[in-house]
Batch of 4 targets.
Target 1
Amino acid sequence: MYQFDYHRPASLKEASELLKNCDEAKILAGGQTLIPTLKQRLAMPSDLVDLGALKELSFIKAEGDAIMIGAATPHADVAVNADVRKHLPSLAKLAEGIGDPAVRHKGTIGGSLANNDPSADYPAAVLALDAKIHTTKRLIEADEFFKGMFETALGDDEIITEITFPHPKRAAYVKFPNPASRYAMVGVFVAETPMGIRVAVTGAGQEGVFRVKEMEEALAKNWSADAISGIKVPVENMLSDLHGDAEYRAHLVTVIAKRAVAAAI
Amino acid sequence: MKSELDIMLTVDGAEERTTVEPRMLLIQALREKLGVKGPHIGCESGRCGACTVLVNGEAVKSCMMLAAQADGAKITTAAGLAAEDGTLHPLQQAFHEHHALQCGYCTPGMLCAAMDLLKTNPKPNENDVRQALRGNLCRCTGYQHIVDAVLSAAGTLGSGASAVKGAAE
C-alpha cells in the first residue's frame, strides 16, 4: 500500500468536507474491495475517509410500499433482516450470496454501488427494482446511476446515504458464481414492480450492469421462462476473460434469466 | 511521512495501546505491534481466512481491515476462546477430538469463523457449517473433520445437547 492519511468523521457533514478539502480522498465504506485494491497499489488516494463511525448510515426501515437501506448497512444485516426477507426476499438472498461471512460483515451496500464492479451483485438489484439512490446532494434514479465499468454518476465529494427499494410483485436473483471468488460470472435480477418489468444483468457486460429490454417486453406479454428462451444478448458487448469468453457469457445470460423468471416469487 | 495514529484494542480481554501507520492492517498490528501470533497471515488477500478474528463478536478477515478501523474494538482470537486456566473451549476440544487439523495453519481462522456461526445459529446442519466456513481454506483435512468438529461442538452431530457454552450469547 502507498501511504495515506486516515480520517474517521463523526458526521456526514464532516465527511463531505474532508472529501472536498483533501487532494485525492477516497471513501472507506467497508473496505472489502478498496483494501485489496490498495494492497495491489491500483489506487493511490491521499486520504481515506472511513464512514465506519456514521451509525446513522446503517439501518433498514420498512415504510409503506418501500424498504429503505442505509448506505453503510453491511450485507450480513440485509441478509437476515425480517422486513427484507418478508417484502424483498430476492434481495436478502442476493446479500446472503455475496463473498463469505467475514466479507458480509464488513462490506456495505453503498460501497458496492459506488464501486460499481462489473461483477458485483447489488447493481443488478438496484437497476431491476428501479431503486432510488439518495446522496448527500440529490436523488439519483437507478437508470441514471450506473455509467459503465467502475463508473457512476456520483461526484467526487458526494456520498450515498440511502437506497430505497419498492416492494416488487415478484422478483428473483439468480447468479452463476465463479466457484473461487463467488463473484457473478453472470447474475440476472428479474423484477415485476408497480413501475413495470425489468431484467438487469451483472457480471457479463463490458460496461457493467445493463438491462435487457427485449426480455422485459417479452415478459410483459407472457411471464414465463419460455417467453425469453429465444432472446440472446449481443456477444460483442460481453466480457471475455479466462473464466469465460464472450460467447459463453452471452449464452449464460439467457440461461440464468430463464432460471430467474422461473424462481421469481 | 503521513501522520501516525494512536489506537486502543482489547485483545482477548487485555487492553492494548499502540501506534500505527494509517495503512497498517489489523493483522499486522496484532502480530507485529502487539505480539499476538495466534491469527496467521496466509494469502494476505482476503481469500484464505487464516487471519480471521472476531471483531466485536463478528468474524472478520483481519487482513481486510485497517488497524485504524478497529480502534476501540474488542478483538477475540482463537487463543482467547479458551478459559483463563487454559481449559479448551468446547469448540477447540471438538477440533482436538475430531482431528480437525493437520498442519494447523488454518485452525485459528476456522475456530473464529465457527464461533461466529454458532453465535447466530447454535444448531447448524452440515450445509450451514460448510457455508459458514466458505471463506476459510484448509489444504490438509479435506474439511470433513472440521465440519464434524463444529457439528459435534454444537451437539448436532448425531444426537445430544449443545456442548458450546455461551454460543447463544
Target 2
Amino acid sequence: MLTDAEMLRYSRHLLLEDVGELGQKDLKNGKVLIIGMGGLGSPAALYLAAAGVGSIVIADFDCLEVSNLQRQIGYNTGDIGGDKVALMKQRMQQINPEVRVRSINTEMTKEQLLMELMMVNLVLDCTDNMASRQMINSACVDAKVPLIVGAAIRFEGQLMFFDHSQEDSACYHCLFPNEDEQALNCSNSGVIGPVVGTIGTMQALEAIKHITGLPSGIKNKLKLFDGKTLEWQTFVINKDAQCSVCGNPK
Amino acid sequence: MWKSKVKINVNEQPIELDEQANIEQLLTFLDSPLKGSAIAVNQKIISRSEWANYKLQENDQVSLFQAIAGG
C-alpha cells in the first residue's frame, strides 16, 4: 500500500493506466545504479528521484567545475569544487525525501562494480569515456543486469538498451568492439546542453518503463538523435556470435 | 577489363562501387578510418566480424557513424 503522502506526491502517475498504484509500488521497489553524474546523469538522477524510484545509487568521482554548468542541470554556481555525487544526492533528497540515495565517489574497478550490480536491477551508463563504457557493459553482461546506455556530443545523441537478463541480448561491445579507441567526448568536441539532456531524460524514461514492466521499443536497438533536425534514426543490433564479451568466439 | 558497378547510398550520398565490394572495401574507398566506426546497412548494424564478407547490393542504404562517449 502507498501512504497518503505518496498517493498525493505520485497522483499524476496514479492517473496513468500504464503505471497506477502497482507501477508506483514497482518504482518504490526499484533499485537503479546511475554511473556518471554529468550532463546525462543530471536529468536521469533527478527524474528517477522525482518518480519515486526507491533506491538509487549514484557514482562519479569528479568535482564540479564551472564548465560543467552549461549543461549539468543538477548543480549551482555556488557548488563549484564540491563532490558531484554529494551535491546530487542532496539535490535528489530535496526533490524527494522518500527515496534512498547512496553515493559512490571513487573510480570503481570491475570487481567493485560487480559487487554493486548484485544490489540493483538496472544500470544507466551516463559516463563520458569509452573505457568506462566498455567496463560497465562487460560487468552487466557477466551479472546479467539490464543496461541503458546514453551518449552525446555536439548536436548528436546515442541511446541503446541491452537487456542482459535475456540470453539473446546484444551488447555495447557487439556495436563498438574497439575498447581502446579515443571516442569523441564533450571536452574534445563540445556539446549543446539540451541534446545531452534529451538523451539523459530518455534514459530515465526507459528506466521507468522497465521498472514498471512496460515494454521497451529500443531493446537491441541504437537510436541516433540529431539535435539539428530533431530526427531519430533507429538501427537494429543483433548479437554478434563472435563478440568477445557476450558471444562465443571461436 | 570493365567491371560492373553497384549504386549505393552512404549517409544519403550516392556512391558507385565495384560489384561484389564488401564493407571493408567501401571504407577503404571512402578513406574512412576503420576504428571507431559502426556500420548499418538498411537500418541493421553489421558486426565488425562480418565486414570482410558482407557484400553490398544495389540500392543499399549504408549508414556510417562513430562511437561517441560524451556524457
Target 3
Amino acid sequence: MNKIIKKEQLAYNIHLLEVEAPLIARAAKPGQFIVIRINEKGERVPLTIADKHAENGTIEIIFQEAGASTKFLASLKAGDQINDILGPLGTPAHIEKVDTVVVIGGGVGIAEIYPAIKAYKNAGNKLVTIIGARSKDLLLKESKIKEASDELHVTTDDGSAGRKGFVSDILKEMIEGEEKISLVYAVGPVPMMEAVSNVTKAAAIKTIVSLNTLMLDATGMCGVCRITVGGKIKFACVDGPEFDAHLVDFAELRSRLATYRDKEKEALEHVCRLLGG
Amino acid sequence: MPERPANDRIKDFNEVALGFSLDEAVAEAKRCIQCKNPKCVGGCPVEIDIPGFLKYLAAGEIEGAIKKIKEKNSLPAVCGRVCPQEDQCEKVCILGIKGKPVAIGALERFAADWEREHKAKAGDKAKDKDKVKVSVVGSGPAGLTCAGDLARMGYLVTMFESLHLPGGVLSYGIPEFRLPKEIVKLEVEFVKSLGVELMCNALIGRTLTIDELFEQGYKAIFIGSGAGLPNQLGVPGENSQGVYFANEFLFRVNMMKAYQFPEYLTPVLMGKKVAVFGAGNVAMDAARCALRLGADKVSILYRRSRAEMPARKEEILRAEEEGIEFALLVAPTEIIADDKGRVKQVELLKMELGEPDASGRRRPVPVAGSEFKLDVDMAIVAIGNSPNPLIPRATPELKTEKWGGVIINNETATSIPGVFAGGDIVRGAATVISAMGDGKAAAKSIDNYLKR
Ligand SMILES: Cc1cc2nc3c(=O)[nH]c(=O)nc-3n(C[C@H](O)[C@H](O)[C@H](O)COP(=O)(O)OP(=O)(O)OC[C@H]3O[C@@H](n4cnc5c(N)ncnc54)[C@H](O)[C@@H]3O)c2cc1C
Ligand SMILES: Cc1cc2nc3c(=O)[nH]c(=O)nc-3n(C[C@H](O)[C@H](O)[C@H](O)COP(=O)(O)OP(=O)(O)OC[C@H]3O[C@@H](n4cnc5c(N)ncnc54)[C@H](O)[C@@H]3O)c2cc1C
Ligand code: SF4
Ligand code: SF4
Ligand code: FES
C-alpha cells in the first residue's frame, strides 16, 4: 500500500498527488513513469513521475481527470492509500549535452516535462521551454519551470496568457530565427506532438516525443502499447515511452487510442454513480 | 472425471471439470497395480511417488496421500488441473498399454482439493539458517517452487513479482474456468506460510537491479521471469483496433476480471465473430474466453493439421464441445481494417503439409493463389511467447541464446555467479510442471552453492 502524503488541485480537473513509494523515488530517472491500481477493482493506469523527493521516499504525479480511473483518483484525499504502484517504468530519457534544447509541454504534459528540463539543463545545455494550454489557469508549475529554464515562452489557445496560439507557432518562429536548435523534446496531446514533429521534420531537427499509448501490464508482456516506429513494432512501455518523433506512425497511435472509447464512457458513468453516492 | 455440460458452462467463467467424489477417487486409485518398477514416476518431471500416494488414496487415507504428493510437488491442485498428463505420467502408466491408464492427474487434484476443503494447511516454517538471504524473481510456478523449497531448507526468501498479483501465467493467463484463481491464491498462501516473503509491484531490472539485490545482502538470486513476450504474426494490419495479442486479451479477462466490467474497471472488447490464430493451450484458452464473453462464432485458425496442434487433447476436445470451430491448414496474410481502423476481415492462405521440419512436424507450404477472406470483428494472435527480455536487457552480463532464453549450465547456474534461472525464461514457453522441476533443481543448486 502506498499512502498519499499531499494532494493539491493545480487547476480545474488537474491534481497533484505526492505519494509514498521509496523504492521508486530512489530509482526514478527523467522520462520514466509508474502504473497505479487504486483498489481491487481498479484499472492499471500509467502516469509520469512528475517529480521525486528521494530523501522523503515520495514521488509526485500530476493528472487530468480524463475518465473513470482519473476521476476516481481525484476523489482520494491525503492519508488515503493506493493499492498498487509499480515503477519506475520505461526507458529513461537519453539526456545528452548538445547545445540548445527546446523542451515543449502541452496541456497536462506541462507537468510532465519538469524532470527533463532539469536534466537537460544540468547536462549543460541552453534550455528554452515552451508551454501551451487552453487558457491561463491551466498553465501548471509555471514559476517552477521558469526558474529552471533559460528562456520560457507561453501560449494559450484563448490568449488569456502569453501568446494566443499554439506551441508549434513559437517553435516555427524560433527555427526561422537566428538560434540553432539541436534537439526538441515534446510531451502533450497527440495532435500537439504531431504538429511539433511536422515543424521540426521540415527543418531536420531531432525531436523526441513521449507517447501516451494505451497500457496494461507496462512490463512488456501484453502488447497493447505497441506502435509502429520506423516501420518496426515497438512496445512503448519498455522500448519507450520516448521515441524519435519523425519515425512515429501518429495515425496508428490515434486509432489505437480510440479502441475502448465506448467502454470508457460506460466506465465513467459507473464511477460517477459510485462517487455520486 | 465428471464435467459440466457444454451448453451450461459457456455461459460463465466457473470451472468446467467437476472432480471426483470420494468413492470415485478411491475406486480409481484401486485400479493401480502398485508396480514394483513404476514407469509413471519417470513420466512425472518432479518424480512424485505416484504408487505411494495412490496406495493411501485406495485405502481412503487422503491425508497420507496429500503428504506423499507434497514431498515432491508444492502445487498439486494446480498440476492436477493443468499438467499435460496424457504426455507425462499417464502416458507411461502400465495400464495404458492395454486399456485406460490410472487417472493420476485427476486423483492428484482430488487429494489437493480434499485437503483444501478439510484442513487449514499452513506449512511448517523451517528454522532460519543463519539468516542467509536469497531472492526469487517472478512468482510463477518456477519461482513459487524454488522459493518454497529454499524456505524449507531454512533460507530467508524474498520473492519479487512485477505484477500486482502473484502466480505468473497461473494468474494472468490460464482462465478461471480451467484453474480457479482462488486455488492459485491458496497455493501461494501455502508457499508464504513456509516463510517466504512476497513483494509484488517490484520489477527487477527497473525497481531494483540484480546488482542492487546483491548489495542488499541477498547471497543468491533465482530468475523465474517466464516467457511473457508475445510473438507477432508480422502481417500488415496487425495493429488495427480489435486485434489482440493473446496475452493482452487473457490478462484483461483473467487478471483484471474484465468479464465483470464495469464493476471491475478494465474493459475488454466483446467480438461477435472472432478469429484466433494458433492452436496451443493459449489459443484454446483465448477462444473459450471469447465465447464466454458472448461471441457468436469463434474460429481457431491453424497453419498445420489437427495432429500437430500443441494444446492438451482434453482442452481441444472441450473447446470443440463448446462450439469452437477449427479451420486447419490456413495462414493469415493480412488483417484488413475498416475506415475507422477497426478489424473487419482477415485474409487467409490455404496450406498443405510438406516435408518434416526441425521440430519433426510436417512443414506447412502455401498453396499458391488460394487466398480467401473471412469476416471478423475481433482477432487474437496466439502463436507463442518468447522469454521476457527485460532482465537480460537490464543485466548485460547475463548471457542469453539468440532467441532470448537465459543460458544455464546443468546446475541451473547462469553466467553470473550466484544467479540461477529456470522455467520459461530458460526454456521458452513450456509447461507448468517443467517450470516447477526447474525451480526445484535450482533450489538444490543454490543450497549447494551457498554451502560451498
Ligand atoms: C507513459 C504514460 C504516461 C502518462 N502520464 C500521464 C500524466 O502524467 N498525467 C496524466 O494526466 N495522464 C498521463 N497519461 C495518460 C493517462 O494514463 C490517461 O489519461 C489515463 O489512463 C486515463 O484513464 P481514465 O480511466 O481516467 O480515462 P479513460 O476512460 O481511459 O479515457 C478518457 C478519455 O481520455 C482519453 N485518453 C485515454 N487514455 C489516453 C492517453 N493515454 N492519452 C491521451 N488521451 C487518452 C480517451 O480517448 C478518452 O476520451 C500517461 C500515459 C502514458 C502511457
Ligand atoms: C494461456 C496459457 C495457458 C497455458 N496452459 C498450460 C497448461 O494447460 N498446462 C501447462 O503445463 N502449461 C500451460 N501453459 C504454460 C505454463 O503456464 C508456463 O510454462 C509456466 O507458467 C511457466 O512458469 P514460469 O514460472 O517459468 O513463468 P511464468 O508463469 O510466466 O511466471 C513468471 C512471473 O515472473 C514475473 N516477472 C517477469 N519479469 C519480472 C521481473 N523483471 N521482475 C519481477 N517479476 C517478473 C511475471 O510477472 C510472472 O508473474 C500455459 C501458458 C499460457 C500463457
Ligand atoms: S505433477 Fe503432473 S506429471 Fe506429475 S504426477 Fe502430477 S499430473 Fe502427473
Ligand atoms: S504405472 Fe500405473 S499402475 Fe503402475 S504404479 Fe504407476 S499408476 Fe500404478
Ligand atoms: S503495456 Fe503491456 S506490453 Fe506495454
Target 4
Amino acid sequence: MTSLPDTSRPGQKKLGLVIDLDTCVGCQACATSCKEWNTQGYSAPLTDIDPYGPDPVGAWLNRIHGYETGEGENRRALHFPRSCLHCETPACVTVCPTGASYKRAEDGIVLVNPDTCIGCKLCSWACPYGAREYDADDGVMKKCTLCVDRIYNENLEPEDRQPACVRACPTGARHFGDLGDPDSDVSQLVKSRGGFDLLPQMDYKPVNKYLPPRPRRSDENAVPAAKLETVGKADGSVTERFFSWLDKALS
Amino acid sequence: MHPAYSVILFTTASGAGYGLLALLGLTGASHGAASSFAFGATSMLLALGLITVGLLSSTFHLGHPERAWRAFSQWRTSWLSREGVAAVITYIPACLFGLLWVFGGNDTLIAILGYLTAIMAMVTVFTTAMIYASLPTIRQWQHWAVVPGYVVLAIATGAVLLYALATLFGRSGIPALGVITMAGLGLAIIVKLAYWAGLSRMKPKYTMGDATGLGGTVRQWEVPHTSENFVQREMGFKVARKHAHKLRGICLGLLALALVMVWAGFSFGGAAAPVFALAAVVLSGIAVVMERWLFFAEAKHVVTLFYGEQAV
Amino acid sequence: MLAGHFAAAGAIAARDSSASLTVMAKPDSTDGNRMADEPEINLNLKTWDEVKTTTCYMCACRCGIKVYLKDGTVKYIEGNRDHPVNKGVLCGKGSAGIMQHYSPARLTKPLMRVGPRGSGEFREVEWEEALRTATTWLSQVRMSDPRKLALFTGRDQSQALTGWWATQFGTPNFAAHGGFCSVNMAAAGIYTFGGAFWEFGEPDWDHTKYFMLFGVAEDHASNPIKMGLGKLKKNGAKIVSINPVKSGYSAIADEWVGIRPGTDGLFVGALIHQLLKAGKIDLDYLARYTNAAHLVIRNKSGADDGLIARDRTGKVLVLDSASGRPVAMDKAAKPALHGEVKLPGKPARTAVPAFQLIAERYLSDEYTADKAAANCGIKAETIVRLAGELAHAAFEQAFELPIAWTDSRGEKHKSMTGRPVSMHAMRGISAHSNGFHTCRSIHILQILLGTIDVPGGFLYKPPFPKAAPPGLKPAGKVGEVNPLKPLPGPPLGFVAGPEDLLVDADGTPRRIDKAYSWDAPIAAHGLMHTVITNAANKDPYGIDVLFMYMANMSWNSTMNSGGIMDHLTKIDEKTGDYVIPKIIYSDAYYSEMVAYADLILPDTTYLERWDCISLLDRPISEPHGPADSIRQPVVEPDRDVRPFQTVMLDLGARLGLPGMVKEDMTPKFPGGYADYIVNHERGPGIGPLAGFRGADGTKSGKGEVNPNQLEQYIENGCYWKYELPEHMRYYRMANKDYLEWAQGFGFNPNANPVTFNLYSEVMQKFRLAARGHGDVVPPQVHRRRVEAFFDPVPMWYAPFEEAMTDATDFPMHAVTQRPMAMYHSWGSMNAWLRQILGRNWLYMERGRAKKLGLRDGDWVHVTSHHGRIKVQLKLMDGVNPDTVWTWNAIGKRSGAWNLDRNAPEAKKGFLLNHIISDLLPVRDGGYRYSNSDPVTGQAAWYDLRVRVEKADGAAISEPQYEATKRPPGLLRAAMKIGERMMKGRGQ
Ligand SMILES: Nc1nc2c(c(=O)[nH]1)N[C@H]1C(S)=C(S)[C@@H](COP(=O)(O)OP(=O)(O)OC[C@H]3O[C@@H](n4cnc5c(=O)[nH]c(N)nc54)[C@H](O)[C@@H]3O)O[C@H]1N2
Ligand SMILES: Nc1nc2c(c(=O)[nH]1)N[C@H]1C(S)=C(S)[C@@H](COP(=O)(O)OP(=O)(O)OC[C@H]3O[C@@H](n4cnc5c(=O)[nH]c(N)nc54)[C@H](O)[C@@H]3O)O[C@H]1N2
Ligand code: SF4
Ligand code: SF4
Ligand code: SF4
Ligand code: SF4
Ligand code: SF4
Ligand SMILES: [Mo]
C-alpha cells in the first residue's frame, strides 16, 4: 500500500487546501479548530502530555508561523499556516514499512492508518514540511486528514462538509476543493493569484497551494490619490486662503 | 536530527554483529568448520546476539512494538521494511551456517552458506544505511559516504570483535585477520574523514525563502507555539559546530587508537594480546557510538527552515 | 467530588467506542477507486448524540456557537452559521473552548480565606455559609453608608443586572472595566456623534474601498473584524494600518504606518490640515448633520464665552449668509461656516461659526505635515499622499445607492450618497492620556469626509445613534445616597456639564474611583483601575466591602500590580485589620486575584449557565439591525458552583433589595437569572431581551413578558435579530423613518436627529467652570488642568508620562498587544492555548537593538520611572524603532491558575503592568493624578516610557512572587489529556 496510487490519469480528484498568505492574520483558529475536531475525530486522541506543567507537548496537525521578509521598503510581515500538503509523490508514504501511511487513490488524501502504524516515525523524517506529529501516548503518527471524516460525512449539513479549519477561518484565508479539476474554484483561484508550491525542488508535488501576499504599494496596486492643491485666493496664510475658498463655495 | 539512543544502540550493535557474522561466514567459506567448538559457538552467539539485541532495541522506540511484524510488508518501496526483511532472512543462512560451522559439516555447504550469510549480512547493513541515504529531506545523509560508512564501520567493528575473540581463544597470530582488522579501521577512518570533509564543504541548498516560497530572506519573528512540539524535538536537534568538530576528532582518535591497539596486540601482544584486543573493542565501540550520535546530531532536516533555520 | 473530572477530560478527547473509525484492511476489496489494500474508513463518523446552540464566551465578542455533546460531555464546538455576529466562523480561542470548560483551574466550591491575603490558604464552605456571610457584610454597609460597598466588575456581560443591583443597593461605587479599557473611545464617540468605535458601530465592509485602522491588534469585534478584513481583501479595498507594530491585521494591511505611540492626534490633525487646505471636505454633509454652522459666542472672560449662541426660545443661532445676520437654525437658507457676527443683546458679544474654530485649529502651523512628521516618525510625503488617497476615495469614488429616504426635516432624497472611506480605532488611541482628544480628531476626520453612517463609511449599530450625549446622568449626588435606599438612577451616565458631577461642595469626589469628579469629569465608564489604590489610601474615603467579579485586579488588569498587592494587604494600624476590611470575589478559575479575597463565590463556566447579551448592556447588534442573544447551560456543572448572576439575585433577595423581593419579602426571581431574564422589566414592556416579547412571542423591542421567551430563543439558535428595511440603514443621525422607529422600539426617548459636535459645548462648560463661572467650580488645584484639557476643539498634546519624564532616562515607548489566541489572563489554564503562547518576549526593532548592543535572546532590564522588570528580548523588523512591545497578560504568578509552579508563564513570561504606574509623577503641589486621560479618566496604559539595558543572571523573568498555594478542591492537574481509550483498536 505504500506504493503510491497513479494520480496521473485525467480527472483524478486531488483534494487539498489553498491558503491565502495575503489574508491570513495568524489568529490560530485553524490550528485550534483542527485540534478540536481531530481530538475526537479520526485522529483521536491527539494527546497533550504534561498539559499544565512546565513543558507541555501535544500533537497538533496545523501550525501557524509568523515571518518577516524582504528588506527596506519592501519589508513585510505575514502569517503562515502549515499542515500536510497531501503531496502527489510524497516519500512519507513510500518510506513507511507497514503501509500504515498511504495516499487514497480516490481523492489523493494522505492518511495514517492508526490501526497498523507501528510508530517508527520514519514518515515524519521523510516529510519536508513537518506535517506529521507523533502522538507519543497513542504510539502512532498523526497528521492532517483533510478532515476525511467531515468532508463526506452525511451526519453533517452539506455546507458543513468541509475541513474544520476552513469552516472556522474567520478571514476566509483557507479554501478547500479539488485541485485536480482545473475549473474548480480553488484551481481558478490558484491560477488568478499565482498560487505556488512549497519546495517544488524536492519534487513531492504538493497538492495544497499557497497564494502569495499581494505586492504592497507597488505601481501595480497603488491606489489613486487626489491632488491636494491649496485652494482659495493666491496669497495669505493657508487659513486665510481656505476661508476665502469656503466663502466662495458657500455663496 | 535528534540522536535517539535506541537507534544508536541498534545500529552500533547490529552493525558490529553483522560485520562479525559476515567475517565468520567468510572464515567458514575459506577455512571450513570452526577451529574449536568453543570459539565457533562463542563467536556465532556473539554475532547473532548483537544482531538480535540490536534489532530488539530498535523496536524500543516504536510506538507499537507488538505490531512490528507489520513492518515486513512494504519491501517494495520502504528501505525500513527491506531492512526488516533482510534482517529476518539473514537469520536463515546464518543459523544454518552457524550449525554446520560450529558442529562441523560438509565444507562446500559451509562455504555456500558462509558466502550467503556474508552477503545477507552486508545487504542488511546496506538496507539500514539506505533508510537514511534515501531520505531527500536530509542532505547530510545523501552523501556518497553514508552507505560505505555503515558498511565499513560494520566490517571494522566486526573485525575488531573477531580479532578479540581470536586472541581470547589463543589464536592471536592470524596475520590475515590482523590485516583485515587494521584495514577495516583504517578504511573507516578514511571514509569518515571523507564524509566529514564532505559535510564541511556542503553548501546549504534550501533556504527559508525556498521553504516558505516567499523567496529572499525570511525571518521567523513569531513562533507558532512556545512549547516545543514533536517536530522540533525530533528534527530540530542542533549541535554546535565547535562541539561537533571536537567530537569528530575524538571519534577519529578513538578509531585510530583502536587500530594501534590491534597493531600493538598483534605485533608484541603475546599473552597480553587479549587486553589490547579488548581495548580495541571498547575504543571502536565508543567511537561508533559517537559516530552514530554525530550522524544524527549533524543531520539538518529541511523542516527546520520553517522554524527559523536560515538554510540547510 | 471531582473524581470523574479527568476521565471526562479524557473522554472528550477520546475516540468514541461506538463509532468505530477504522476497520482492518480488507486485502481483497477493490471497490471504487480504493486501492486493493486501502483500509476502509468510516466517513460518516458521528461522535455526538446532541447539538445545542449557545453563545461563546472565550472573549467578549459573543459569537454564536453549536456545541456537540455525547452523553453530556462536550465533544466539539463550532460557529453557528446563522448567527449575526460570526456567521459560522470561530476564532482561535473559541475553538479551544473545550479546554477552558474542563480546565483544572476551575474553582469547585465557595472558599473562605484562612491564611493571610495573597497566600492562597482557604477552607471550603457551603454556599449557605458563604451567602450568609456576604449578606451580613453587605447589610451592615447598606444600613450605615451604602458607599462603603464598592462593586466593580471586569469582563462583565451582565452590567444591566450588576448596575441595577448597585442602584438598588444604593451605592454609586459601581463600574465595570470600561474605564481602564476604552472609555476614551466610547466617550469621544458618544459626545461627538452619538455612537462610537467601541462596539457601537462598524465599517460598512461591503462598500468600503479605503479602510484606515488605528491602533487595533484584535479588539472586541474579534471575528467580525477578521471577516470584514477578508471581505475588503476580496473586494480589493485598500487597508491602511496605523500602528507602531506590524503584526496580525497590520501585517496584512496594504500599507503599514509605523507611528510613534501617542502621536496619532498629530498625524490625524495633519491629514485634516491637508484636506482642509485643499478644500477636500463635504460641505453639504457638514451643514446638514453637524454643528459646523452653530454660532459660538466670543466673550472673553464672560460666563458664556465659547457656548453656542441661542435665541430666547433656545434655538441655536447660525450666521445667515444671505442677510449676514444671526438667525435661528431653521430660518437660515444658507448658514455660513465662516465669519464673525455681532450678537443681539447686551453685553456686546460676537460669535463665529463653530467650523471656523475647527478650521483655524487644524490649519494652524501645529498640524502641518512637516510638524507631524517630526513627531510621529512618519514621512511628510506619506502624510500628504494618504490625505490625497482619502480624498480620492471619499469624493472621486463616491457612489449612489438607489434607495429613497426622508430626512428629519422631511426632505425626501432619491438616493443615498456613499463615500467608501471607513475607519476603526481602539486601544492604540484610547490607552493614552491624550486619547479622548485624539479619538475626537479621528471622528472629525470622518465627519469632514462625510463618512459617518453613509454607505461605505462607518455605520452605527442600533440602539445607536443616541443623542450626543444621551440624557442619562450618573446618580450619587449629595443627598442621593442614603442607608437602605436605592439610588434614584443608575450610577453610570453622561454628564453634560459641571452641574452633573458627583462632587461634594468642596469639590471632593463622591465616588471611590473619583469618576465624575474634577479628576475625570467625563468618566462615562467609571475608573476601575483606581479603586484599590484609592480605597487603600482612604482617598477620598475608606470602604468596608470591596466586591469584585471577573476581574483579575491583583495582576494583569491593574497598573502597578506589585503596589496593588501591597494595597490589598495593607494593615490599618488602628484596627490591626486590613485597610480594605472585606473582599468578596467571584471568579470561575483560580486567578491571581482569588488569593487576595476573603470570600470566594465560585462561578460556572460559560457552557454551564444562562446569560443574557442585552441591548441594555453592550449589544451585539449589526449595522442593519439590532440583535441580542442568550447563553443556555449546555452541560450541568459537575462542581459545587453557582452562576454569579443567580447568586447576585439571591443576595439581593436576602438583603431585601427593591425589585429583587416581592412584597412579602420572598425572592422575586426564585428561578435565578433565567427567571430574571424573562420576567424583569426595566420599563413597561422593556426587558433584558428584546426578541420574542409579548405573550405569544411575536413582538420585538417592547412587549409584555413572554413566559416561553427562552425556549423561543433556543429554538432560534439562542439569538434574535431584527433586520431594518433598506431605507433605514444609513444616515440614521437624521433618517426620519429610522428615528421614529427607534423611538417606538424604545431606543431613544424622542425622534430628534443627532447633531454631530465638531465643537463640543459640553467641554467648554467645564472650561468655564475652571475659569470660576457657575455654581460647581473646580478647587484651585484642578483649575489649570481642566482649563487646559477641556478644549472644545480637538487638539494634540504629548502624553503625560512622556511630558513628565526625561527622554534621555526613558527614551522608548513600551506597549502591549492582544494576542489573537489568548483572552487576557484566562487562556493560560487552557491546555491548548498555553501551548501556543505559554510565555512572552519583549520585541524590539532590529536596528535599534544593534545600536544598543542587544541581541536576540538577551535578557534585559526594562526600567520606567516607576520600577524595573527583567525579561527576554526578541528582535523583529516591523516595529517602530522607538517602541518595544509584548503580548498582554501572558505572564502569570507562580502557583496561580493551578499550573505547575515552574510553568513558563511564571518563569519566562512577564507583565509590563509592574512598571506602569497607577499615578502620575508628583506635580507641583504634591497632588498625584491617576495615570489617566484628564477628560475621561481612561487608564493610560500605553503612555509607558522605558529604557532597556542588558541584564545578567539567571534566565528567569523578574519580579518573581512567592508561589500561591493551591486552594482545597482544585485537582492536581492531569498528566495528559486524551486518554488512550482505543485499547484493542483494530488489533
Ligand atoms: N484575542 C483577544 N481579543 C481581545 C482581548 C484579548 O485579550 N484577547 N481583549 C479584549 C479587550 S478587553 C479589549 S479592550 C480589546 C482591545 O483591542 P485592541 O484595541 O486591538 O487592543 P490592543 O491589543 O491593546 O491593541 C492596541 C494596538 O494599538 C497599538 N498601539 C499602541 N500604541 C499606539 C499608538 O499610540 N498609536 C497607534 N496607532 N497604535 C498604538 C498596539 O501596537 C496594538 O496593536 O480587545 C478585546 N479582544
Ligand atoms: N499592560 C496592560 N494591562 C492591561 C491592558 C493592556 O493592554 N496592557 N488592558 C487592560 C484592559 S483594556 C482590560 S479590559 C483589562 C482586562 O482585565 P480583566 O477584566 O481583569 O480580564 P481578565 O484578565 O481576563 O480577568 C478576568 C477574570 O475573569 C475570570 N473569569 C473568566 N471566566 C469567568 C467566568 O465565566 N465567570 C467568572 N466569575 N469569572 C471568570 C478569569 O479567571 C479572570 O480572573 O486588562 C487591562 N490591563
Ligand atoms: S484561521 Fe485563517 S486567518 Fe486564522 S491563522 Fe488560520 S488561515 Fe490564518
Ligand atoms: S506534506 Fe509531508 S506528510 Fe503531507 S503528503 Fe507531503 S510529505 Fe507527506
Ligand atoms: S510511523 Fe507509522 S505511518 Fe509513519 S512510517 Fe512508521 S508505521 Fe508508517
Ligand atoms: S484539513 Fe482538517 S486535519 Fe487538516 S489541517 Fe484542516 S482541520 Fe486539520
Ligand atoms: S471571537 Fe472567538 S472567543 Fe470571542 S466570542 Fe467569538 S469565537 Fe468566541
Ligand atoms: Mo479592555
